């Protein structure tokens, strides 16, 4: 608290009294207490920013003696080779064992804005999840659902049968920038299941013939 300390004047022999001088002293102890109370309040009530991460699923390696690989359901495989991006949809079929539509062929994509851009392709393939995500966004904006329910419903959408799952494979010359750009595009397209894995022998042969 503020205090006023008085200093006496006095008679200097001339019969006149001088005015008393006052000095102000401010006690800062209450201000320090208030500062600590405010600091404690803001620390306890503030929401700290959470790191934004994207989960990647690493599938278990198939058994060596297992002749039947697991069936791929609505899967798209991206292959990064050097600075190029290739893809094919569905399961892989070699020339010796072609599927109903023949052996697998690689198509080339890019990170631009044309017809073969990764973003446009993903948007058309994952239309089911994107449409449902728009509805969830509206409910979240109107506060009809909480953040936790929104995340749970969105995660459930990305693993349904109609949702696209993506495998990412790279060769020895693939650029790290291409991998990061691809993961960013997958995030934009609301792809929930992303699995980096190794190239198979058949994919290596197909990639070698393509290049």
Which SSEs are present, and which pair or pack?
Layout: E1 2-7, E2 21-26, H1 29-45, E3 75-81, E4 84-89, E5 107-109, H2 118-125, H3 127-141, H4 147-158, E6 165-170, H5 176-188, E7 193-196, H6 201-210
Parallel strand pairs: 3-6, 6-7
Antiparallel strand pairs: 1-2, 3-4, 4-5
Q: Your description of this structure?
A:
36% of the residues lie in helices and 18% in strands. With 211 residues, the protein is of the alpha/beta class. It has a domain of 136 residues: Nucleotidyltransferase, domain 5 (2-Layer Sandwich). The strands form 2 sheets. The chain has a 5-stranded mixed β-sheet, with helices on one face. A two-stranded antiparallel ribbon has the order 1-2. The N and C termini lie far apart (82 Å).
Distance between the termini: 82 Å
* CATH topology label of the domain at 75-210: Nucleotidyltransferase, domain 5
Tally of DSSP β-strands? 7
Number of helices: 6
| Name given to the CATH architecture of the domain at 75-210 | 2-Layer Sandwich
Q: Segments where pLDDT lies below 50 for 5+ residues?
A: none
Going across the biggest sheet, name each strand in turn.
5-4-3-6-7
Structural Rg: 34 Å
> Strand pairing plus helix content: what structural class?
alpha/beta
Helix fraction, binned, reads 25-40%
**What's the rounded overall pLDDT mean?**
82
**What does the main sheet amount to?**
5 strands, mixed
- Series of secondary-structure elements, N-terminal to C-terminal: EEHEEEHHHEHEH
CATH class bucket of the domain at 75-210: Alpha Beta
Shape: elongated
Fraction in beta strands: 15-25%
């Amino acid at each position: 608290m503020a205090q006023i300390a008085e200093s006496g004047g006095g008679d200097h022999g001339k019969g006149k009294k001088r005015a008393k001088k006052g000095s102000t002293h401010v006690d800062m102890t209450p201000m320090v207490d208030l500062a600590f109370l405010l600091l404690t309040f803001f620390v306890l009530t503030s929401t700290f920013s959470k790191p934004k991460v994207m989960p990647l699923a690493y599938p278990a390696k198939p058994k060596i003696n297992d002749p039947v690989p697991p069936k791929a359901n609505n899967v798209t495989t991206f292959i990064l080779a050097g600075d190029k991006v290739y893809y094919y949809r569905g399961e892989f079929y070699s020339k010796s064992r072609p599927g109903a539509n023949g052996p697998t062929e690689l198509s080339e994509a890019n990170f631009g804005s044309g017809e073969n851009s990764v973003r446009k392709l993903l948007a058309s393939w994952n239309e089911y999840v994107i449409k449902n995500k728009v509805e969830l966004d509206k409910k979240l904006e109107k506060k009809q659902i909480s953040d936790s329910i929104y995340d749970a419903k969105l995660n459930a959408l990305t693993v349904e049968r109609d949702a696209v799952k993506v495998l990412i494979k790279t060769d020895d010359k693939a650029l790290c920038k291409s991998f990061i750009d691809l993961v960013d595009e997958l995030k934009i397209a609301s792809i929930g299941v992303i699995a980096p894995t190794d190239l198979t022998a058949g994919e290596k042969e197909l990639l070698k013939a393509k290049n």
